Amino acid sequence: MMSLIDGETGPWELIIGLEIHAQVTSAAKLFSGASAAFGAEPNAQVSFVDAGMPGMLPVINQACVTQAVRTGLGLKAEINLYSVFDRKNYFYADMPQGYQISQYLQPIVGRGTLTIDLEDGSSREIGITRLHLEQDAGKSIHDQRPDKTYVDLNRSGVALMEIVSEPDMRSADEAVAYITKMRSILRYLGTCDGNMQEGSLRADVNVSVRRPGADLGIRCELKNLNSLRFIRQAIDYESRRQIEILEDGGSIAQETRLFDTGRGITRAMRSKEEAHDYRYFPDPDLLPLELDADWVETLKRDLPELPDTKKQRFEESFGLSSYDAGVLVAEHETADYFETVADGRDAKLASNWLTTDLFGALNKAGLTIVESPVSAETLGGLIDRIGDGTISGRIAKQVFEQMFESGQTADTIIADQGLKQVTDSGAIEAMVDAVIDANPDRVAEVRAGKDKLVGWFVGQVMKASQGKANPQMVNDLLREKLR
Amino acid sequence: MSLDKATVRRIAQLARLRVDEERLAPLAEELNNILGWIEQLNEVDTDDVAPMTSVVDMTLPRRRDEVTDGDRPDQILANAPETDGPFFVVPKVVE
Amino acid sequence: MTELTDLTIGEARDRLAQGELSAVELTEAHIEAVEEARALNIFITETPEHARAAAAASDARRGRGEAGAMEGIPVAIKDLFCTTDVLTTAGSHILDGFHPPYESTVTANLWRAGAVMLGKANLDEFAMGSSNETSYHGPAINPWRRAGDNRSLVPGGSSGGSASAVAARVTLGATGTDTGGSIRQPAAFAGIVGMKPTYGRCSRWGVVAFASSLDQPGPLTRTVRDSAIMFGAMAGHDPKDSTSADRPVPDFEAAIGKSVRGLKIGVPKEYRLDGMPDDIEDLWQSGIAMMRDAGAEIVDISLPHTKYALPAYYIVAPAEASSNLSRYDGVRYGLRVPGEDLIDMYERTRAEGFGAEVQRRVMIGAYVLSAGYYDAYYLKAQKIRTLIAEEFRRVFADIDLILTPTAPSAAFALGEKSDDPIAMYLNDVFTVPASLAGLPAISVPAGLSTDGLPLGLHLIAPAFDEETMFTAAAVLEDSAGFDSVPLQWWRTG
After folding, report:
1. pTM of the predicted model, to two decimals?
2. What is the ipTM of this complex?
3. Inter-chain residue contact C323 with A87, CB threshold 8 Å
4. Which of A139, A423, C270, C304 has an alpha carbon within 20 to 30 A of C277's alpha carbon?
């Protein structure tokens, strides 16, 4: 089903391509030995090479090469055993060399694919055009003084993977799904931490519109989008802007547009930006990068199980729904947690506890699953006690809350607070009789046909038992006695 | 290929070199002189020749992923014309 | 005190080793020579205190029985090498005030070998030139003068100051860099020995980059033996330079004194230029005869694409330079000319900071890389480079060395060729092909022109075979017996 936008003069198709810049997870930078870590004091993680000092030369970090190849393999892409580093020449205060070392005609990774999962449960394959390695720029800070820019070169030279998609996406939802899946894969591989707020994952969006079936229209590149929300907003605004122009008979100027987060609009960059002539040429300080085919095979073999495969396995082995499996595999920490809990237990139950109770508690406390006070083993222990009838599902919720707060096991809490479920039929019968005897009018109503009131009786017995009576037994006994 | 004033202006912009208006024509002439002399390379048939990719016959050396550098902000900033604390300071780009 | 400044490195080394001479004495004599030779404008920065301290330390080391290959030897360092806390200008206004917080690998190697720095030598701005006339700090002057003529002559370039320093007996040796001939041609103009190593032999780390795929540090000395000694101390693999060859450094000095009997010396016909001065042609012929007399076999060879080397070089070198010089932007070091905004600051700083020749080359470079012209110029030049390198490889399958003149003329007067860039570029016609192919080459002083100016002969060897090159160069030096020295006109009395 094509998602089209209705213009005033007919339907339009939205064409979206994404360029993702993912900071490579590595200790040191791409061509220098300075640290690539986030958050240091300004200019504290800068080598003479990163500062573009006279006579400085690049030496490539093996780990960055490995990470780029693994990412390519994770995207089912062609790995180019021969690739070249080129200089991309342009001037900016946070680009100390006056050029960026990048890859132009011969990147390290070629064509691949990424499967996106949409809200309606369907999937689509989006093409990856290429992936290449390049240096990140430093940071320009414009708000310290009205006429000056402050420059911090800590980020200058950090390794980036630029991942370019085919213009295969057709809606903001698909764009968001693409980034979400890409981020997930990168985190599974450990090649990028995918943190959009810290800037380790950035997306530029190429947007154009066309009449269904027509040739591709002129596209605009949208920059400065550092959250999924902004990406959605920018795409929505930009598509309407372009449609309006075209329907008025105008044409789209191919340009780079910044997203104004305050006003929710895109605007053309007003700097003296004549079309950039980057004058790419192979960097003479480096030699071509040649990879060993056997080495690439080894990397491929040693890749971890990736989200799509894991999702399929969860559906098949655990009998989970596509939706549930999708939620669990989004982060591999969650998936790993789940597998530990589900081992030898009811998978659906495990899934529910994880995604509802645990996630709920973690969100409220602002913690990630890695920081969870309730480990997978202890959650499993709680589920065991439900399964063997020690406690009811309802009591289990209470126990869970306390487990989360104290970090103790279910058994400890159940024992300490005497929360064992009452299953002694005699004891339950006594409580049921007591409630029946105390409420003759209601009994009469039930017997007269008000079936819903049985629930009230169940509630009363549960209250009397402080929630510990086995609800099923209470229910059965009441129905029998209230007949 | 002959350069005109407009091309010289464009190249000067690419190279971030300020060239006064009256210098454009003489500069174009100087550059055309040199480019004209270079034209003789067109005499050579290079259709089946690969461009030189490196003078040395070796593979690209790789470094281990270790932090061995940085942590020297004073040295990095020492020669800067203008700084403020740990930052380089430059005039703003007119955006 | 002319005696100590007349020594070769080899002789000084021996005297120092035998305790006949101290490093401090040797250095003092040269500090005096530096002061006396200021008219030659050899140094952009003199470092006498630095030298004295280094000499004292050298004597102390020798006292402990530790002596490096260049122990106590006073040298000049081309101001293209970054030297810690010592002003490094690259002969340019744009690096005013630049004190590097780091030391180039090659100079660090020399200090580790015990050498003593007398100062930073003058050069063409950013190594772009063949006469040292483009330096922001004024031209360096050749100690040689034409017979009966008082005009100042150029020492060649870009390592002009380095060549003058050695020829004028102000230092025992000097470092230079050679991109298209910038060590060899000034060596020829100054009557001294200058060599360019195989590309990758010496590290480029800390050397202000001009054309990355061509630049090579190398020594300028008075004798071939000195060249081998100094080169051995400079060379070696550097993991900080990705283009540095990971090869052990042989004992180059051991190559000197060997015979050239049985070696095949190629003479390329394409190096015979129309209108080449007779004395250059005669010198070449005498070189051929000398080699033959020493037992080498002379072989006529053809290097058909020779004439395209120079124009190809003047595409590749400016292209790489245009990119290498982008970092000189007034932001982090050197000159900053205030501007209305960032771009204005860039444009003014670079226009004022770079001289005319540098600006011309930066613009040529930007042009030949620009969209639409890359294939026709840069790619084409790199293909020609492949052809030239292949040609050399082909002939070296059958011969051991190539013999040519070093330069198409002797030293010329200041200002004589600065009006026509191409006339200036033609100075490098014999040296550029070896640069494009990354091959080692050396210039040996072999005779005098009709004006009484030194002329050099040029030997090109296969990649990494500097040893054979040194062997033949020593034989040539021996046979030529060039023992002329320039009149020290700058010393009063």
Report:
1. 0.93
2. 0.96
3. yes
4. C304
